[in-house]
Design goal:
The protein is mostly beta strands. 11% of the residues lie in helices and 38% in strands. The two termini are 20 Å apart.
């Protein structure tokens, strides 16, 4: 699961850095659903981390970097990306497509 909040610029060591058109910055978390007997699943880490996706490369080539960043306990083969916005779970993203090809799924994300 990935919580997407699009940002137009990125802070690096306190300074602003402009990103290219083919970059999509968002916050990412994973859903810890390893225990099937848990009443509810928790998003980890508690404070989402920022990740920059390239909108022209298929997500299947980028998901390993997100998995490493989050240090998720799941197997990479079991990982997928899901939009989470305003407290609601949205659509799953197609890992064989680019973010640029999935504009409809990302429509309406608030910019910060």
């Amino acid at each position: 699961m990935i919580e997407l909040v699009k940002v137009n610029e990125n802070r690096v060591n306190g300074t602003m850095r402009e990103l290219g058109e083919d970059s999509f910055v968002c916050r990412v978390q994973y859903l810890n659903d390893l225990d099937p007997f848990m009443e509810y699943n928790v998003r980890e880490p508690p404070r989402p981390l920022y990740h920059t996706f390239n909108t022209t490369i298929p997500l299947s080539y980028q998901i390993a970097a997100v998995h490493r960043l989050l240090q998720a306990p799941h197997r990479l083969d079991d990982a997928t990306l899901q939009v989470f916005k305003d407290g609601d779970y949205g659509p799953y993203l197609d890992l064989d497509s680019t973010l640029g090809e999935q504009d409809e799924e990302l429509e309406g994300l608030q910019e910060r």
